[in-house]
Every structure is written in structure tokens, then in C-alpha cells.
Amino acid sequence: MSQVNRIKGGLIDRSKPLNFTFNGKSMQGHAGDTLASALLANGQVLVGRSFKYHRPRGILTAGSEEPNALVHLRSGAAQEPNTRATVAELFDGLTATSQNHRGPLEFDMMAVTDLMSPFLSAGFYYKTFMWPAALWEKFYEPAIRHSAGLGRLSMEADPDTYDKGFLHCDLLVIGAGPAGLAAALAGARSGARVILADEDFAPGGRLNAETLEIDGMAGADWAAQMVAELAAMANVRLMTRTTIYGAYDHGVYGALERCTDHLAGSGGKPRQVLWRIYSRRAVLAAGATERPIAFGNNDRPGIMLAGAVRTYVNRYGLTPGQKVAVLTNNDDGWRTASDLAAKGVDVRAIIDTRDAPAVCDVPGARHIRGAGVVDTAGRRALKRITLTDGQMIDVDCLAVSGGWNPNVHLTCHQRGRPSWNEGICAFVPGTDLPQGLVVAGAANGQLTLAAALAEGRKAANAQVKDLGFTPSRKAAPKAEDEAHEGAPKWHIPSGKTRAWVDFQNDVTVKDVKQSHAEGFRSVEHLKRYTTTGMATDQGKTSNMSALAIMAECTGKSIPETGTTIFRPPYTPIPLGALAGRARGTDFRPFRLTPSHEWAKANGATFVEVGNWLRAQWFVQGSEAGWRDSVDREVLNTRQNVGICDVTTLGKIDVQGKDAAEFLNRVYANGFAKLAVGRVRYGIMLREDGICYDDGTTARMGENHFVMTTTTANAVLVFRRMEFARQCLFPDLDVHLISTTDAWAQFAVAGPKARDLLRKIVDDTQDMSNEAFPFMACGEVTVCGGTPARLFRISFSGELAYEVAVPARYGNAMMAALMKAGEEFGACPYGTEALGVMRIEKGHAASNELDGRTTAHNLGMARMVSDKKDCIGNVLSRRPEMMRDDAVKLVGFRPVDRSAKLIAGSHFIAKNDTASTQTDQGWMTSVAFSPSLGHSIGLGFIKSGDSRMGEIVRAVSPVHDTEMEVEIVSAHFIDPEGERLRA
User: Fold this and answer.
1) Which burial class, exposed, middle or buried, applies to 624 when counting CB atoms under 10 A from its CB (0-12, 13-18, 19+)?
2) Assuming Cys at both sites, which of 160, 246, 546, 698 could form a disulfide with 271, CB separation 3.0 to 4.6 Å?
3) CA torsion sign, 670 to 676 to 681 to 687?
4) Is the backbone peptide bond immediately before 751 cis, with ω within 30 degrees of 0?
5) pLDDT tens, residue by residue, 566-606
6) What pairing do the DSSP bridges indicate for beta strands 272-284 and 162-174?
7) Cα–Cα nearest to 705, from 781, 793, 789, 785
8) Contact 503, 67 (CB under 8 A)
């Protein structure tokens, strides 16, 4: 396809042709083109389909406000849906395809929905699909989901990388149009650190699209000269292809920089960078967006905004059509007609809704005063327009100008509301702006060139002066204020012909009137009932028209009717950019245990436990599955000796002369009289009396304690202890420090644990049961003088110790323990075996400490001392929490020993119907016990401690299972504790 619509002029580089494809058709453009301009140059008018009715859609705008021209870019894993063709830079080899159609773009089979439009008006989804109810899941919902959406994901991993960064500046200038360039120059000349960000790849804003002059030179040339001056300044950072998408607290702005989107490949560089910009002051110079006029069939391909037509003519050197008409209610539309005529384009007519004289002379064009367009013809491209007086004009492009709306979006991001400006018939920024932000230029309602330049310079000078810099005294550039008068015309009555307000979501004038008729008159209700402004463009081209039509319906003024406000992001942000490098193994930071390398080299399978990667089990020999490995580890530990890295347990060093008293207040049970060299198990309560953590604390010296917490709650416990130390008990002399990272700790469990440790612990420590009994602790040395700590505690129910060494020795310590244990049949075990053994022994863990259970529920009520006060003590004794029929932690085993228990099952009496009213409790933890040869579980059931031997049903509606289980003691192995005291 040749570039049939190319004309002379423009800012594109015609010496650099670029080849691309659209829907498989080969086309050609030039460097400096966007995909949209290249498509128009090649005569491609139809580019997509609307969301709801699948009506043909063409390019409407030339910027990020585009609602129609959404396409897929690239192919395969790199495919990117919902890309606005108007901002996608053309590059050689670009592959683009249209979206949201079934079958070819020209013959979309889903266009049949347009024939059903009388039944699919505004709010239809609130009124339909209600009957019969059984069809919702079987038919309605699947059909809707199949039809919904615009683009399609590739469903493959994104091959690109994304990054995040932080920037700081004195002055952030948002927008590089005339006001933005003037502001950046003023700020930079004062010596302030300036960041100038603009979403376009060519700074200059509308100067690149106009024939206006500044200081006697073409506006585009002046912009290029000013950009060169800024680029040469060391205190200026130019950020093109960068959208400031959000204004946040304390002068922080979110920015998305598209680094390699304009290239065929990223070359290993980040495709996009999400910046957090910290600014002391900011100037918003984001310009304004032209608005359309609603009239009959105003959505046909070939109907465009007049400012966009002017952009394509002056910047991209093309005409969107060969026979063009202009519909306008303001002077600006005449400039489009004038520029078209100057390029030799056939301008058939200028239809001005005002009954006023011509603004300028446009050779060959008819001036039709006080008229409008009521209908158009042409299914997949515009062919003809019909005027209010009935006359018809053959055209292939209609340029529409309904006035301009300042881009106030960022001023609303902290709940600021815009104010109505009657002079330009639009909302402008209100007085409640984000901290440190001022607005200049068209974004502030100054729609003429000279006014925008002057206000940009003035705003920046005021901002830098407030920061202590000397404002630049250089005079403002000279320019003239162009004609910009207008009279509001929001829609033209068109009989029964549909007039479109929101092009992407297919919202019509009739829909807005229906919203009013059905009582949805609040602007927020209007938005949600009709879906106006809820498309990817966030209503940049539709909101104002919808508000004006609602105002007409209510008989109120537009400011009385009100306006919605905007929230981030200003334009869509890819999820990949929000994630940055946090994907795959880098999804979140992770920590490795000191023995990780040893475990990796010895067949460990790892699992995420909080932030840690822990060995879950160790595969040996011909073991076919994880159960084989776990069963072996459990049995070997109970028969010989096993070793497990338990470094991940939280470790907190507590020191000070009041350390014992402090622990006495944060633990439910007593610690004040714990002897030096002894360890005690303790539970902690929240202020409301609920148990939230358990662990052990060892008294290493008179004023020195070492606490361990669960892995999951290590940070929480430390944070709450610091709060207690600083805020609840500031009079106590006690200091805390987390030592989790400082010590590598290993559990050595099993009947041969003492024999193994005698080969590791130096002879200075007597390891006999009499000298080092259960719950003893002490400072020792290992492996010939390495400092260590030894604790005789057991989570498995076996004779067990935990030995801690400085973390740097952790990997070597694991190797030393395994070598010393060879003669005793030592094996490493992971978290699965650890979990099995703790269930066999009846130890509570996070499954039981789930934020709902008390010491009474856990069978530990006697541990909440009544001889002292502690956090949560009083509220733990509320009558409701001490009920005799409260749920209690007990054990369960299936009556059919071959059955597999399911965690989360609910306990129901044998003869009751399963319901919330008959629910007696729930299963918290289950495991297959290789020691017993069947499945076992822990759980809570009403009055469980007095119901031993009773049979109940374990029901899991989620798994659709039910089985009989017997209530038994939670201590399945060695209930008397003889092994751990051996």
C-alpha cells in the first residue's frame, strides 16, 4: 500500500523509510511517524472496533487521549495489547494488528451486537441475565466473559525487563509544550535542579503541530532551539517519552519512562522504568485536550478532532482525507481549515455552529453559518455528511472542534476539585492543589500562545524564588495570541440517530438522558451507570460532553451539576512496569539459611518459609516421591539421629538489669525466677488475650536472655517487644537486639543425638543427662574452640539439642555434624519431617496460633499466671474466653486407618446435618505418621479434652469428603515425655 495521503512538509525524516505491517499488510512510513500517522498516510482509515457494539472505529486524536485506535504491537511473547497507535513510535519491522473483533476487521462477526443495541442500552447489565438464575453460571457468565475485554495477552512470559528508580529535583516541569519549555528555561537559568518530563518523543507540544511563530521563528524551530539549550545545562534532566502519571504526598510524582518501546528490540536494556520523583516544587504544563461534538453517527472512521487533523498535516506531513469538512463551534477549528487549504487539501466546507462571520479566508471552502451535522454515511469509512438544513456533502474526513479542556487530572490526585471557567466553557484547576504544585499554560486555561509562554515563565520564577534561587530576568519570548473565541455546543439533536459521547464504551446521548430519567443524576452515578469515562482513556474526550448533557437534562448549570475527579494513573501503566524486577525468583527478597549451599549439594528441595528458602526434604537414592523422603527422615530421626537447620527461628538478645522483669511482663507465664543455665517455654498474648506466638527463652546470665520465636512472627514479636520497651515499660532497664542473622542454629534430634554431639562439643562441657538435663543451656565451644551455644530443647519429642554457632560457620557446621554422625546413621531432615514430628508430639504451630485461639483453647490455660500481670492477662480471662465448652486442641485419627485426613475439615456430630449451626470445630494440621502407619491430625473441637474416644465426622465441603474420626490425645508419640528427658 502506497502512502496515498502524504503531502509536503512535516517534521518526519523522509530520508529514512520504515517498513511495517498492519493485519498482515505491508506498509511504509518514515522516521518520526507514529503508527497512527503511518496508517493514515497509507490510507488505512478503519483501525479497530468499539467495545460494546463492535462498531467500526477510526483514529480520532493524535495523542494519549485516543479512545479508538488500540492495537496489538509485536508478536509472540512480546505481544503488547491495548497500545494506542497515536503514541506508538514507528520503527522498522513493527508488527501491528487490530483487536476486539471476531473474524477479519472489515467483517467482524460480533458486529451483530449493534443490531441488538435497543436491548443493550445503559445499565442493561443491572436489569438482564436475572432469569432463570440457573443459566447465570452455565450460559450468561461464560458468554459475557468470552465477549469481554479488548486486547489479548500472549499467555507467555514477558521477555522484556523493567526497572524502577528514584530521582530528586528542585523543580519538576510536567509537559514540554510552550508553557513547559518557558518554565523549564526560567527554572534552569536560576540554577535550580530541573527535570523536564514529557510523554512525547519530540518536545514542543502543540508547537510541533502549529504554524505559529515565536521570536520570529517557526514554533517547532524555537522549541528545538530551547531543548538544545536545556540539554546543554548540567542542572537539567530531559525526560522525553516519560509520562507523569500520578501526584502523591510530599511532592512525590510517579513517572513512566518508555526507554526502548520505540526500538525493535531492547538489547538487554530495561524496556520501561518506573520513576519516583521527589520534587521540592512542580509546574504542571500538561496542555489541553480538544473535545468532540456529539451528533448523529459521529463515530464513523474518518471523523476526527480538528486539532488532531492539524497535527497530522503540520507535524507528520499527511492529510487524513482528500475531501475534508470542518465542524466547529470556536475559532480554533478555522485554523485547521486554513492549514489544510495552505497544503493544497480540498476543504469542502466549514460548518460553524455559531451564526458569525468567517474567522479567516479559506480558499475554495464554503462557510456555512449557524448550522451543524445531524448524520453521516459510510459503514467502514466516512463518505457523506448531512447538515441540519438537509443538504449533503461528500467528504472522506470531518474535522470536529468542540473547544478545549485543560488537562487538570494531576491536580485532582489528592482530592482537589476543578473550578468552572465560563470564559472557555471548561473546568480549570481549583485552589486545592497538591503541595508545591502550580499550573501554567493551557492546563490552567490560558489557551493562547503568548499567554501560555508568559504564565510558564512566571510560574517557574515564583517557584524557584520560593526555594531561595534568583529568578531569571531574561524577557519572555515574543509571540501573539491567536483567536480562540467560541460558543458551547455539546451535541446537535439528530432525531432517532444515535449520537456518540464515549467512543470506546459506546455511550450515546440517549444513554445519558436515560441515566437521568432513571434517577442516576449524580455525576458519579452517571459515570458508573453509563460507563462514560471508564475506558482506557478515562474519559478525556467524553466526560465534559456527558456532564453538559446531564446539566441540560436537570436544568442546572454545568458547575451546579458537578464533575468527577481523577485518580492515578493519568494514562495506563503496564503491570510489568509496576512489578519492575520483582518477578520469578526475584518476586520478593529471599533469605538463605547458613547451610543452604550444603543442602543444595545434598539433594534438598526448597520451600519458601516467610522470606526464607528452607530445605523441605532431601531426596536420596531411588526415592520416587516426597513421601518416601519424608517418611525416611522421620523414621531415621526417631530411631537414630537427624539434623535440621533451624536458623530461621527468630532470635532476640535481651539484656539489662530489668531483663527478667521485662520478660515476665511480655510472656504469659513466669520468667522472673528462671535460673541461669535453664530454658523455659513461653507463650505471648495480644492485648485482647489471644495467643499470637510461642517459643523458648534461655537465661545465659543474670541479666542476659536469648529468646527464640517462630519463623513467621520473628519481626512481629521484635516489633511488639520494642513497643513494650519504649512505650509501655520505659522505666525498665532493658535492651533488645535481633540476632537472627548472627547465629546459625541446628537441631540435633534422636536417641543418638548425645553421642553425636560428644564428638562435636569440646570436652569442657559435660554432656551427661545429670550435668546437662532437659531444658538446660550454656555457652560452649565446638570443633576445637569455636564459640557456640547449646540448648537442650526438643520440638520433635525425642532426645534433642539445638547448637548455635556464629553464622559464618553455619555451612561448615552442618558438614561437621553430618560427618560426625556417619557412624550413628545421621540424616538431614527438612521442614516436612519437622512438621510431621511436631504433629506426632502435639506441638502447636502457626496453624493453631491463627489469631483466634487462646491459651484456654490450646490447653495451656495454667500457663497464664494469676500471680503476675502481663500483656493480655486481664482480657484473656473474660468469661466468654474461658467457657467450659470452648474448643480445645486435641488429636484426631481416622476410624478407617487407610483414610487421609484433610486440613480445614469441620467436625460434625455423627447424626447431625453438616451446617454452620452444627459445626463443632475444625482440623488445623494433618500428616501421615510413618511411626504409626496412618494419617493423624490436630484440631479444635468443643470440649475436646473431655471427649477422648468419641467418634465424630470430619466434613470438607471444599473437597466434597466426609469421614469418621476418633478424638484422641494430641500427643501421639511418647505422651509421658520419657524420650526427650532420656
Assistant:
1) exposed
2) 160
3) positive
4) no
5) 999 999 999 999 999 998 888 888 999 999 999 999 999 99
6) parallel
7) 789
8) yes
User: Read out DSSP for 151-197?
Assistant: S----S---S-EEEEEEEEEEEEE--SHHHHHHHHHHHHTT--EEEE
- In the numeric block, which cell numbers belong to residue 697? 527463652
pLDDT at 1 over 70: no
- d(CA 344, CA 351) in angstroms, rounded, equals 19
DSSP string, 277-328: EEEEEEEE---EEE---B-BTTTSTTEEEHHHHHHHHHTS-B-S-SEEEEEE
Pairwise CA distance, residues 382 & 375, whole Å:
11
Strands (E), 490-601: 500-502, 507-508, 591-592
The 10s digit of each residue's pLDDT in 309-365 is 999 999 999 999 999 999 999 999 999 999 999 999 999 999 999 999 999 999 999
Which residue reads 486435641 in cell numbers?
890
3-state secondary structure of 223: helix
Could you report the per-residue pLDDT of 210-223, keeping only the tens digit for each? 999 999 999 999 99
Cα dihedral 133/134/136/138 (nearest 10): -170
Cβ neighbors of 753 (< 8 A, separation 6 or more) are 641, 798, 799, 800, 801
| CA–CA distance, 522 with 525 (Å, rounded to integer) | 5
Altogether, the residues listed in the chain come to a count of: 982
104 Cα distance to chain centroid: 34
Type of residue numbered 770:
E
Cell of 224: 528545538
CA 556 to chain CA centroid, Å, is 39
Q: Which of 553, 562, 468, 463 is nearest to 509 (CA)?
A: 553
Which pTM does this prediction carry?
Answer: 0.84
Q: Would you give the distance in Å from CA 502 to the centre of its chain?
A: 27
